[in-house]
Request: fold
Amino acid sequence: MKFSCEKALLQSAIAVTSRAVAQKSSIPALEGLLLHADSQLTISGYNLQTGIRTKVSADVTEPGEIVLNARLFGDIIRRMPDDVVVFTADDKQLVHLSCGDADFDILGLSAADYPELPMVEDDFSVSIQQKLLRAMIEETAFAVSTNESRPIHTGALFEITDQGLTMVAVDGFRLAIRREPLEKIDGGAFSFVAPGSALGEVKNICSDVEDLAAVTLGKSHILFEVGDTELICRRLEGEFLDYKNAIPRKNPISVIADTKALIESIDRVSVVISEKQKSPVRCLFDHDKVLLSAKTGNGEAKDICRLSGDGGGLEIGFNNRYLMEALRYAPADTVKIELNTGVSPAIIVPTEGEENFLYMVLPVRLKSAE
Reply:
């Protein structure tokens, strides 16, 4: 096997595919990257849950394939001078790497030991702009559950219909929804739950460009195709929360807030809250303002944030991080906050236009006023 390739291209491909390599595995090949050279070079990483495969422009003079330890290979390429890397491997899996005046000899593993990445049937597929997919993942993934007792909620729900794509994440304390129209869907409406860990990698692979990414649903796997890179992950099975019936929308109180100003106010009163000294942020929604306060053993903090609308004197408590994240990820400068009682969820939606996002944050019970 022999090829030559620009160092920068090789380094970038190794960085992307290494994210799917198993850190520690009883199968040594899974701690490596599979290099397959024919008309071009393909590099794959796979940990039996998620696989990433990317094509690299290279001058292949002798086709072949080999597995190299991902960490060692990555460290070598990263330290090489900015030049063309020449790669040769013999029948005994001995690899010689040279670039400029630098030379390395390392031992690879047989590609026969490397498990094949799953094939994904293309019954259903959809195309979406990379920057849109990236934004939708970012603006919902924070609410994906990390609690393994409900595995289905450790992923995000994708619902594809003629109206567009809806993404939903829920962790028992908050819920995040993002909606966007779609350019093209094949095979009709479909839905699936993709693991949160895989979506984090999809977000990293997507660039801030209008080029399309394709999402394909197979019988047990999902394929994300972004440029020359493919990510394959196992779909999560189980019953996802019936989110449409979980969101109360008949809320008598509605106020409009400047997103940045409210985040800054919550941030200020959160100074006295810490891992050891936990406390909810107490919010008193009054006429055209909300009074925020927090009190712990560290001290007491108070602030006022101006709003539009009348909160009717409603007092409600929130986990500061959950409320702040919902506001931080809301793609709008102003938001409408719908409220009902001190023990009902807060609903955060856009103030105008299409309802392309909705965040729900459950309150924390407040002890009687001190």
Residues 314 and 341 are 7 Å apart (CA to CA). The chain has a mean pLDDT of 94. The two ends are 74 Å apart (CA to CA).
